Amino acid sequence: MEKVKDIIHAINRYLQNLKWHLQNNKPLALLCVAVAGLLLFSAVRGLQSKSARTDRKPVTVEAHTKVLAAEPMYKTVTLFGQTSAAAKINVVNKYAGMITEVQKDLGDRVAAGDVLAQQDLKDINIQIDRAEADFKSYDAYTERYDATFQSNFQKYQSDYNLKKTNFERYSELFKKGAVSKLTLDEAEQQMLNAKANLESLTNQKLYDGKPAYVAQRAERAEQRRNSKLLLENQREDMTIRAPREGIISFRNAEAGSYVQANTHLFTIVDNSSLNLDCYVSEYDAALLQAGEAVSIFVESLGKKYNGKITFVSPDKNRENKNYMVRVSLDKSDEQLKSGMFARGTLRFLQKEKALFINRSAVLDLNGKQYVFVLGEDKKVHRKAVQSGIRNTDDVEIVSGVTAGERVITDNISRLRDGLEISDLGKKEEEK
Question: DSSP letters of 363-430?
Answer without folding.
Answer: EEETTEEEEEEE-TTSBEEEEEEEEEEE-SSEEEEEESS-TT-EEE-S-GGG--TT-BEEE--S-GGG
